[in-house]
Amino acid sequence: MTPTITVSQSGGVTLAIEYQTGATFTGTTGSTDNAILRASGTGGSVIQGSLATIADDGTLDAPAITVDGDPVALKEATKTIFIPLSQMYGTSSHPAELISYSPVSGNAYKVLRFPDGAQTHVAEFDLFLPLDADTEAPIQVQIIWRNPGFPTATGDIVWYFKGNPFTFDESPDTNLIPTVLPFAASPDGYIRTHSFQIEYFKPSPVFWRFQLLRVAPDTFNSDAYLLGAYLTYNTL
Predict the structure, then answer these.
(1) What is the span of the domain harbouring residue 216?
(2) Taking a C-beta distance cutoff of 8 angstroms, is the pair 138, 195 a contact?
(3) Within this chain, do residues 195 and 149 fall inside the same structural domain, yes or no?
(4) Which residue in 143, 138, 215 sits closest to 178, CA to CA?
(5) Are 94 and 197 members of one domain?
(6) Which of 8, 111, 152, 182 could form a disulfide with 225 if both were Cys (CB 3.0 to 4.6 A apart)?
(7) Rounded to 5 degrees, what are φ and ψ at 85?
């Protein structure tokens, strides 16, 4: 059975497909090039356009896709790595100190102590980015620390986080100097989190040395106890 097609212009493109049996499909396809046509309603004779398109080369583009009700990621995804204290160590002439902290109630646990004082203290950890990391995208870092002076401690603490990329011969790559963001905040609770973002300038599978600094002088009149850090990266 050979169909006949009549196209008329009225706002969008109205498409009518009439078969010898007399069945007719009508509807507005819209003005989007390459839009996928779909049913409109349940009558079986009306069509409409959609936000999904198929290009001439077969590329499918859609704002979202779900499978059995669950969304499928069409764009970059993220993964998160937890960095425990056992992977961190104090460095420089004023290193953060690994100590055992005993709260008023509960069991003792290990923390990295960043003392209150006039000196900047540092802790660092080393990491190869995983093979699925998008090395052109920013890295997000979140630190978790405890305010042992709560609720009497006052003032603002200044944390500074930076990443130093290395090539495989362990010499710094000057073309990969990252942008780092310091963070200052009033510590108003027992457990605090701060987030940082690192951006760098060219893709390369590199070895990183990350450093966390409590920058002196700040106005927070208490020690700060680091519990760990989360590092989040975009995947390819």
Answers:
(1) 78-234
(2) no
(3) yes
(4) 138
(5) yes
(6) 111
(7) -60, -25
